[in-house]
Specification:
The protein has helices spanning 21-25, 131-138, 186-189, and strands at 17-20, 65-70, 77-79, 95-97, 100-102, 108-110, 140-142, 156-159. By secondary structure, it is mostly beta strands. A three-stranded mixed β-sheet has the order 1-8-7.
Length: 206
């Protein structure tokens, strides 16, 4: 029997990865928890359209999603009251979730994962409404995970089935579209010219 999982290390490979949306959805969340509380991304990740009731029905009448603001405290954040405007999609509201359970290894668990919870909790980053349509229309869709280097879907792009970026060399292409020869198997480097000499990432349509 294996022991407890070790801490999740941030990914250091900055090159993009290309998968179909179906392939991306087949991956498991690794439980880093960095999308569950604004302080874990130093305020980058926020909650939009926070209703006035703050999802109290999900927490036996207590607020589930709590707005926070910067402070001079040790952890740099403190709770604040809900205010008009927090319920707008256009308002980036730093937040903490009262059901969030930080773990000693750095991960984070959801205390109500098996219960009803806000829809957006299960949407990010590959189950959001309209993603299939966007990939079909544009050919490629950047998943907004650049602020989450520990996330399963860090620096992934969803592409349409059959896109050239899905060839076996896709892992050898950096974010600027240049092939990293050091990542190619030795057997392929000699025949690089025969492969066309270049593999480029997908280009959005329109």
């Amino acid at each position: 029997m294996s022991g407890a999982p070790g801490p999740i290390e941030p990914m250091t490979d900055e090159r993009r990865r290309y998968l179909t949306l179906a392939e991306a959805r087949a991956l498991d969340c690794n439980g880093c928890g960095d999308c569950c509380q604004s302080s874990r991304t130093d305020g980058f990740w926020t909650w939009g359209a926070l209703p006035r009731d703050q999802y109290r029905p999900f927490m036996d009448g207590q607020p589930l999603i709590i707005p926070v603001m910067r402070s001079g405290d040790l952890d740099g954040w403190r709770d604040r009251d809900w205010r008009p405007g927090d319920d707008s999609d256009a308002t980036p509201t730093p937040f903490r979730c009262s059901a969030f359970r930080p773990q000693e290894d750095g991960r984070g668990l959801c205390g109500i994962h098996t219960q009803e919870r806000p829809t957006k909790c299960g949407e990010f980053p590959v189950h959001m409404i309209g993603q299939d349509r966007d990939v079909e229309a544009r050919g490629v869709m950047h998943l907004e995970t650049s602020a989450f280097p520990r996330c399963t879907w860090f620096r992934m792009d969803a592409v349409a089935a059959g896109d050239p970026a899905l060839d076996p060399l896709r892992g050898c292409v950096d974010s600027d579209g240049y092939v990293v020869l050091g990542e190619l198997p030795p057997s392929l480097i000699d025949g690089w010219a025969r492969l066309g000499g270049a593999t480029v990432p997908p280009t959005p349509r329109g």
